Structure to design on (302 residues):
């Protein structure tokens, strides 16, 4: 799940930037959505225990189990019936599967557990059940993502709160040193970001190439999250290993509202990245005319 790591002291290409800012969240959501689509196709009589679990059809779940179906059988993605039930929020089915010996902490081919899936979809009651039955709240996927990363990505403040009361690390880092706050900032989940910060999340924490949550919010265009981060002490002129500031990100992506905010908070309009590029040159390159005008009005130079 980890994108190829570029030279830490070179400017990222557009493709490499997409890897950092989009591929990880996209892949996680694809994993979550895959089970949703499977469940949607189970309106007819479920043909397998997995389908019955996804559909929340407890009668057929009981029937398959009584006929000897393996409660811990894995599909081609390594997911068990409990993964399906947890992702869809079917607490009664999850309880039955657990009672019949389902492995609470089973990981799929990416090391993602049922608790990760419940967290990603915001199913607090299922998450509570899994934890009560022994689920590891700090379980890590093969990319070192914890259930809290999934809760932040999915925008579930309630589940995030549950995990922190159970000892989850608010500043846990995945393989790319990305924290739950990075994910909340990237996805624009203001309430989750606010909660994580209130619980001790580091607003200036850096990913493996030194991007902060503010870089993520600026690139994605989430002004409200950017405002929160700055109010809580985020460095508006923080530089990534490639020399990009949040203003570089906002200007390159065409996010005028965020650019205005950063400038108002004294971001350096003439900051240069490692290749000598300024926010203005990036805005020009990407034909963001309003941002070009904004930057020039505030003294920016090529």
């Amino acid at each position: 799940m980890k994108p190829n790591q570029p030279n830490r002291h070179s400017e990222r290409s557009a493709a490499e930037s997409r890897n950092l800012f989009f591929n990880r969240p996209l892949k996680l959501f694809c994993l979550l959505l895959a089970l949703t689509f499977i469940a949607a196709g189970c309106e007819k009589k479920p043909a397998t225990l997995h389908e019955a679990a996804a559909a929340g059809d407890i009668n057929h779940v009981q029937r398959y189990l009584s006929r000897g179906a393996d409660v811990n059988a894995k599909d081609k993605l390594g997911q068990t019936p409990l993964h399906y039930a947890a992702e869809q929020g079917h607490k009664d089915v999850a309880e039955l599967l657990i009672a019949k010996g389902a492995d609470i902490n089973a990981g799929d081919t990416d090391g993602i557990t049922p608790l990760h899936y419940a967290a990603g979809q915001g199913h607090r009651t299922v998450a509570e059940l899994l934890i009560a039955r022994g689920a590891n709240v700090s379980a890590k996927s093969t990319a070192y993502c914890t259930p809290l990363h999934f809760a932040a990505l999915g925008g579930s403040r309630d589940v995030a709160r549950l995990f922190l009361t159970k000892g989850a690390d608010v500043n846990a880092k995945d393989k790319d040193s990305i924290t739950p706050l990075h994910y909340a900032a990237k996805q624009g989940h203001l309430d989750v970001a606010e909660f994580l910060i209130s619980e001790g999340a580091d607003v200036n924490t850096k990913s493996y190439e030194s991007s902060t949550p503010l870089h993520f919010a600026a690139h994605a265009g989430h002004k409200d999250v950017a405002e929160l981060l700055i109010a809580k002490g985020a460095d508006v002129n923080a530089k990534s290993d490639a020399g990009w500031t949040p203003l570089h990100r906002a200007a390159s992506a065409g996010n005028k509202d965020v650019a205005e905010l950063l400038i108002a908070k004294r971001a350096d309009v003439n900051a240069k990245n490692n290749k000598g590029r300024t926010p203005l040159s990036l805005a020009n390159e990407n034909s963001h005319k309003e941002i070009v005008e904004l930057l020039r009005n505030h003294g920016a130079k090529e």
Remarks:
- Residues 8 and 257 are 29 Å apart (CA to CA).
- The mean pLDDT is 90.
- The first helix runs from residue 14 to 40.
